[in-house]
Design a protein that fits this description.
Blueprint lengths: L1 H18 L4 E7 L4 H10 L11 E6 L10 H10 L20 H7 L3 E9 L3 H4 L11 H9 L5 E5 L2 H4 L7 H4 L4 E3 L2 H6 L5 E4 L16 H12 L5 E7 L2 H6 L3 H25 L2 E6 L3 E2 L3 E6 L4 E5 L5 E2 L3 E6 L8 E4 L1 H11 L4
Parallel strand pairs: 1-7, 1-8, 2-14, 3-4, 3-7, 4-6, 5-6
Antiparallel strand pairs: 2-13, 8-13, 9-12, 10-11
The structure holds magnesium ion (MG) and zinc ion.
């Protein structure tokens, strides 16, 4: 009798589990954020980072199809669509075949989908989630593809590619389903189902030169909006950690990492309260060949040296939290990040 009873308990539990919605996915990409960027950021911030609260850590191999040293387009495509491709190319393989992104697959499954970045919204990393172009620098074409896409919410710079175009089209007028907001307050208030927020007409400035609104607030509000009625996918990028690396500027890296760390904290806070949200934090590659070469723990001082003005090929960490986070342990190609996210939304084990 007792066995009979526990059989039904197990059966009803399994039914409950199988009826649960697919998990939300928050993918956070620190462009150019290698271990040295994280380590300097951590020590400069009182020896702490929110990344310490994640459940699992893995390592991602970032090489592209044609180069050991990837660019953000090839590695963005790898993570978004699961294919190793050529540097500079966005959302296509080496034979120019279009690749469907995880954002698009989620949209087909009736998720809400969003993109929040601190670069232009047409820049390589976000573009890999909605565009298919042979060159990452085809910004006006990328903008056109976003205007025809089904992204529910996007935040970033680069409005000029939409309304100051060589073809004289005004894509903002063509995007009739969208509400475009101009401030954090308007963004917070709007009840629209399709929201565009151009933070700057061109490239947003560095954080330490006054970029606003904070990625932390943008992430918090975006998560609120996307989670209202169904499962969601969002990619949040700390875009300019990379630019600090290219500039070999420790202060640039630190200020960008600090903002990204606060945004990650908002994502983690949401995931902890929600219980059905997978958070993944990783990088597309390391930038600057940065080394943490000195400092003082108690005084939160760090010194860094750089060995490159470009990207490097060292593996980058992958931090994960929530349902399916255990999949992200170990060492794997950056394309496997796509595979693992797909496993999660398909509810496989
Ligand atoms: Mg980027
Ligand atoms: Zn770069």
């Amino acid at each position: 009798m007792q066995n009979f009873f526990s059989f039904f308990l197990i059966l009803s539990f399994q039914l409950l589990v199988s009826q649960q919605n697919p998990p939300n996915i928050i993918l956070m990409i620190g462009d150019g954020m290698g271990l040295s960027q994280i380590s300097t950021g951590m020590y400069a911030n009182g020896n702490k980072t929110i990344l310490e609260e994640f459940e699992y850590v893995g390592l991602s191999k970032t090489h592209s199809l044609d180069y050991l040293i990837t660019d953000s387009a090839a590695s963005g495509t790898a993570m978004a669509s699961g294919v190793k491709t050529l540097n500079r190319t966005v959302g296509i393989d080496e034979n120019k075949n279009k690749q469907k992104s995880i954002l698009e697959i989620c949209k087909e499954k009736d998720f809400n989908v969003g993109l929040v970045v601190t670069s232009e919204i047409v820049h390589a990393t976000p573009a890999c989630f909605y565009a298919n172009v042979p060159s990452r620098y085809d910004y006006e074409d990328i903008a056109l593809q976003l205007s025809e896409h089904s992204v529910d919410l996007f935040v970033g710079g680069g409005e000029d590619y939409f309304n100051k175009r060589k073809d004289k089209r005004n894509l903002l007028e063509e995007m009739s389903g969208y509400t475009f907001v101009n401030s954090l307050e308007e963004f917070n208030k709007t009840k629209s189902k399709k929201i565009g927020f151009f933070t700057y007409p061109g490239e947003p400035p560095p954080k330490n030169l006054g970029r606003g609104p904070s990625l932390e607030s943008l992430t918090e509000i975006s998560l609120n909006k996307l989670s209202k009625d169904k499962s969601f996918f969002i990619m949040v990028e700390g875009s300019q950690i990379d630019w600090g690396g290219h500039d070999n500027s420790l202060n640039y890296v630190l200020s960008e990492f600090k903002e990204f760390d606060l945004a990650i904290a908002k994502a983690l806070e949401f995931a902890k309260a929600d219980g059905n949200t997978l958070v993944i934090v990783t990088a597309d590659h390391e930038t600057g060949g940065m080394a943490l070469s000195g400092g003082n723990v108690k005084r939160s001082r760090v010194r860094a040296d750089f060995t490159s003005g470009s990207h490097t090929g060292t593996m980058v960490p992958v931090f994960s939290y929530g349902p399916y986070s255990n999949l992200f342990r170990g060492i794997y190609d950056n394309t496997a990040i796509f595979d693992k996210m797909l496993t999660a939304i398909n509810g496989e084990r």
